[in-house]
C-alpha cells in the first residue's frame, strides 16, 4: 500500500510541476506575442523613417543641382529689393509709365 501511495504522491507532484510549466509557457507566449506586435510596429516606423530620409537626401541633391546650374530659384528667407517682383516694369511686364 505504501508503494502505491508513494507513486500517487509522485504522480500528483509531477502533474503540479507540469501545470506550473504550462502556466509559465502560456505567460511566455503572451509576452512573445506582445514583443512580436511591438517589433512589427517598430519595423513599420523604421521603414517610414528610411523613406523620409531618402526623400530628404533627394531634395537636398535637387536643391544643390538647381542652385549650381542657375535654373532654379534662389532659396533665401530675405527678399532682395533689387531683384524686383516681376510686376509692371519687370522683365516680363511692360515698362512703367512716365
Write up this protein:
- With 98 residues, the protein is mainly α.
- It has one helix at 2-69.
- The protein has a domain at 2-68.
- The protein is built from one helix and no strands.
In short:
By secondary structure, this protein is mainly alpha-helical. The protein is built from one helix and no strands. Helices cover 69% and strands 0% of the residues.
Topology, element by element:
Elements: H1 2-69
Q: What shape does the CA trace take?
A: rod-shaped
Count of alpha and pi helical runs: 1
**Helix and strand element order:** H
Strand content: under 5%
- Rg to the nearest angstrom? 37 Å
Taking the alpha carbons of the first and last residues, their distance comes to: 127 Å
Helix/strand-derived category reads mainly alpha
Number of strands: 0
- Quaternary form: single chain
Helix-residue proportion: 55-70%
The average pLDDT is 83
- Indicate the low-confidence ranges by residue numbers: none
For the biggest sheet, the summary is: none
Which key features would you list for this structure?
single chain; 98 residues; mainly alpha; rod-shaped
Amino acid at each position: 500500500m505504501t508503494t502505491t501511495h508513494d507513486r500517487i504522491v509522485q504522480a500528483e507532484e509531477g502533474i503540479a510541476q507540469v501545470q506550473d510549466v504550462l502556466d509559465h509557457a502560456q505567460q511566455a507566449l503572451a509576452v512573445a506575442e506582445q514583443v512580436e506586435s511591438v517589433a512589427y510596429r517598430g519595423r513599420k516606423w523604421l521603414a517610414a523613417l528610411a523613406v523620409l530620409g531618402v526623400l530628404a537626401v533627394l531634395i537636398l541633391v535637387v536643391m544643390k543641382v538647381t542652385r549650381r546650374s542657375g535654373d532654379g530659384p534662389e532659396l533665401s528667407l530675405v527678399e532682395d529689393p533689387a531683384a524686383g517682383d516681376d510686376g509692371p516694369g519687370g522683365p516680363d511686364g511692360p515698362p512703367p509709365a512716365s
